[in-house]
Write a structure and sequence with these properties.
Strand order of the largest sheet: 3-13-14-18-17-16-15
Number of helices: 6
Order of helices and strands: HEEEEEHEEEEHEEEEEHHEEEEHE
Helix content: 10-25%
Number of strands: 19
CATH architecture of the largest domain: 3-Layer(aba) Sandwich
Structural class: alpha+beta
Strand content: 35-45%
CATH superfamily of the largest domain: Mog1/PsbP, alpha/beta/alpha sandwich
Radius of gyration: 23 Å
Distance between the termini: 28 Å
CATH class of the largest domain: Alpha Beta
Shape: globular
CATH topology of the largest domain: Protein Transport Mog1p, Chain A
Largest sheet: 7 strands, antiparallel
Oligomer: single chain
């Protein structure tokens, strides 16, 4: 495999605000995205299935009761623009008690769920504890949503997630988040993951946490460092730790990780985590890696070195 890494055919995916090249035959699955506390998912379905989904959602919520025994569904708001159409459902009002300046307070919150459609894709936005005014905020976010082909790379600023992109303006405080998992059929013990999240306190760095890892300190002979230290990827500052690990069941595997040195107030320098691990067996039991150290390092180098910010308005 090592000799085949360099000429390996690759495909480029847009994840968040970044591009990553992956083996063309990789099996890729996306994490659900989130923005401003809204969980976002997408899937492909027929128009009739989408229409039926809206009807069944209304019927279901009208049949449910909130904590006071009232009909759960309070409002349905239509969404329609040049890009998409659908509905926002407001339901399940709740009364939450608290204290402010020594006085008891009661806040009313609701659940909000939206199903919107563009071309063949349905998008779901959902949050469980929101204010009534958040309906307008969700409408604004939905207005920034654009359909995206499975492997399309947009040339405008925005945040890519599975089958969609959220266009600017977006700020770090909205904590945009998404990620991908991937595997290779010919190496079923291999797993690769990449995640991006903006607007969070980066805390301790990867190297700092690694140095404080009690498990490693107590079992130092089981961890063999292949490479570690500061490493920038396409001008994105970061750190990596690449190790071979000998498990208690005598299996040997690789565990590689790179993390960005992100900033909480910069959407173009978020918390990024790239991981490659081998030795995944059935029921969580580790097995011997299907890759040698040299092969794992070559594959890691091929993928990790491709990470870059998505260029805007230029050919890639």
């Amino acid at each position: 495999m090592n000799d085949g890494i360099k000429p390996m055919k690759m495909k480029t995916l847009c994840v968040g605000r970044f591009l990553l090249d992956l083996p063309d035959n990789a099996i890729v699955s996306y994490r659900d995205a989130s923005l401003s506390g809204w969980e976002i998912s997408s899937w492909v379905e027929e128009d009739k299935e989408f229409s039926g989904r809206l009807i069944s959602q209304e019927v279901q919520l009208r049949s449910e009761k909130n904590i006071k025994g009232w009909v759960s569904l309070e409002n349905i708001k239509d969404v329609k623009n040049n890009e998409l159409h659908g509905q926002i459902f407001v339901f399940n009002r709740n009364w939450l008690g608290g204290y402010e300046n020594g006085k008891k307070t009661v806040d009313q919150v609701v659940s909000i769920r939206a199903f919107v459609r563009s071309r063949e894709v349905t998008y779901k936005f959902e949050a469980g504890i929101r204010w009534d005014a958040d309906v307008e905020k969700l409408e604004k976010i939905i207005g920034q949503l654009r359909w995206r082909g499975e492997h399309e790379i947009p040339d405008q600023e925005g945040f890519c997630f599975h089958r969609g992109v959220l266009m600017e303006p977006l700020i770090a405080e909205q904590a945009e988040y998404t990620g991908i998992f991937l595997g290779l059929k010919e190496h079923p013990d291999l797993a690769i993951a990449f995640t991006t999240m903006a607007g969070i306190d980066p805390g301790k760095t990867l190297l700092q946490r690694d140095a404080e890892n009690d498990t490693k300190q107590q079992n130092r002979n089981r961890f063999h460092v292949l490479r570690e230290g500061v490493r920038s990827l396409s001008s994105i500052p970061g750190e990596e730790v690449l190790e071979r690990v000998d498990e208690p069941n005598d299996s040997s595997l690789q565990d590689f990780m790179w993390e960005s040195l992100g900033k909480a107030d910069d959407v173009y320098l978020p918390s990024l985590i790239l991981e490659l691990s081998t030795g995944h067996g059935q029921a969580g039991n580790p097995v011997n890696s299907s890759l040698s150290d040299a092969e794992a390092l070559a594959l890691w180098g091929k993928i990790s070195s491709s990470l870059r910010r998505r260029p805007i308005g230029v050919l890639r």
